[in-house]
Amino acid sequence: VTTFKMPEEFGSVLDKQVIGPTTENLIKSDFPVQSFKPKVQIAFQTLPGQCPRKIEVERRRRLYLTFDIAQLLASKGIDSDQLMPRHHNPDNMPTIEEKKDPVFPIYLPLKIFDNDGYDCRTPEEWISLGLEPGSHDRKPVPGKALLPTDDVLGHEDPKSQKLIYKWIDVGVLDYDKATELYLVHKTDKNGLVRDEEGRPILNGGITPQG
What we know:
12% strand; alpha+beta; three-stranded antiparallel β-sheet; extended
């Protein structure tokens, strides 16, 4: 009788013994799993014949992932780029005879039309989705933001006529109660939320150095 000896690199041996496709999620993400789960008003324990809560959550998650806010607005004839107010020259305004639409330029900020009456979560609840069980670090929450494609000019003059605004994938880092604004960071080409040095942005971007 001999003693069983485990290979030194046992993990690599198991990795090579892969038969067929895997169900493991191999996509790297900086967002917590629970941040993608929709909120449902269903009891945790259901009666026989009723849809279980976990199945309904997964159904809605897949459904909501098929929605695209830019396409939804476009289907209603709304150009997302025209939602942001721009600088206008009062001496060069289009006349009614020119039949340009709109005759009067867009000048009201979007925040005037904010309505949180139908929101399923408060801002604090949205931000708390970045907290994973057993972790003290808060991760970003996935979202879409209407932002300029030119970051430099967008910071210098967000109402410039040269800017193009598009719905962009972002990580929501924090929320300011005073201004009622969210702090967001654009995702990179891999869908990750990283700083200039390639490190994950945690806790709203606040580091021990400030």
